Amino acid sequence: MSVLAQDRLVLQVLKGQLQQRANGVLALMGYSQTPDVTSGALSVTDRSTGDPSFDNTSLGGGFTISDSVPIYLEGTIGYARYDPKFVGSDGTETRELPTRWNSAIATAGVGWDFHLTDDLVLRPIAMGSYGRVKSDLSLGSLYITNHTSADLDFLAHGHLDAAGAGGSLMLDYEHYVEAYEVDVELRYTNIYLHSVNTPYKAVQGDSRNENASLWARYRAPTGWHALSRPVRYVLEFAHTSYFGADAQVLNFNHLTSLGAGLELDTSKYHPLWITRARAVVRYVFGQNVQGVSLGLAVTFD
Questions:
Q1: Are 22 and 205 in contact (CB under 8 A)?
Q2: What's the domain range around 50?
């Protein structure tokens, strides 16, 4: 194949697939924008169909300052790797260009607690996000450097910044008695994310993270003791449904998690102001996906 034909092949890849992948990677950032046990540790791939792999890890949490100052603060940081494969053809030859896109995003939220009852709170939350996608063509960069003159600057070593704004509305139920503790959260989130500060017109995109989630936790003493305090067992249930066109970017629109674990009460010793530490094993499943994860969490005084 001539250099000119190779250039046409690569340019066809750019025109036909790069913009779609840019929108997709912004949509994937949505899985790291809120504290969510279903997508906090997520890895998806399908080798049989050649689907690109996606790995997501996030850390987040929130708290209300106090009963007298009912301001709610929330934060989430997430890292993901997305490996889209670009396939193009000039009519006689098909070539695959493997790439690696690494992304990081941080989201902050500020809300206010409206107490409907002693145990039930209505919490609107304003949220903002900022993230970056870094592209690394990896093995494909050698081919591009040596065999084409096409402008693949973004794929080889470019980056895409993204900013977003939106909010959540949450109903938070907390009922704590000596025999057991119950937490239930019902949440709706809608955040619009769009590209900013990028000179690459081919990868200017946008997405909307819209989802509804239900999370519940039950804790009760096991009868065992450690650190001079009761050890609790923990049962969890979580379900998240994703809406809109971006919901199908990973070929599923809902995830469900079932979890069980143990919780240690460290309040007697107060190491670093930590009062409780939990370890929960979760089974996560949805359309065409399933897996197991281990979640670690702490509660601060």
A1: yes
A2: 3-300
